[in-house]
Design goal:
Helix content: 40-55%
Shape: globular
Radius of gyration: 17 Å
Number of strands: 3
Strand content: 5-15%
Distance between the termini: 29 Å
Largest sheet: 3 strands, mixed
Number of helices: 10
Order of helices and strands: HHHHHHHHEEEHH
Strand order of the largest sheet: 2-1-3
Length: 221
Amino acid sequence: MPVGAVSDAVLDTDELWQIVDRERASLADLLERLGPEEWETRTRCGDWRVRDVAAHLTVAARFSHGQVVREMLRARGDWNRMIHDSAVREAGLPVTAIVANLRSIIGSRRLAPTTSPREPLLDLLVHGQDIALALGRERAVPPEAARDAADRVWTMRFPPRPWPLPKARLTATDIEWTRGEGEEVRGPITSLLLLLTGRPEAAREYAERAGKPWTGGTASR
């Protein structure tokens, strides 16, 4: 194993939630310091601005099952539309309320229907980078957390994975993790996570900002 790499141990549920709590707290700290223009900055996550992404990260742990059902009815049963539209509506709140909502769910163990504790971790790590990269900020990611999230994407069956898996051999350079076959793509595990979630340019940018090598293709196929 490379010097400084993290072992390929699986995170248990308590460890997952502890990381989720830390990620929520640190992201709230980052958001609290943003200016008005920064909140309106477009991200690489579809048509979402920073405020839409931040609002999305507060929804799953705050909405009751009844609210989720109502949102699904408004979206006419379209899961992705429900996720998009609920975030945009929540983003209409004052930014102080969005930050307060994020802080209010630190310690919460509520999950969206059909999900496990690995989904909030995945959401926070990927969307945290959506925000940070859009703003030109560096946001560190624990390698063991990014590995767990990458494994979740790789094995995702339900909810259905919305991104095609790269036809490549993915090899992390900062943790012991390899998946897939084909042309080798090497880089930090967080970059591989961004690649797996349909963000090839963000994957390269993260590696460059972190001063770590990124070799191989950039696109999911």
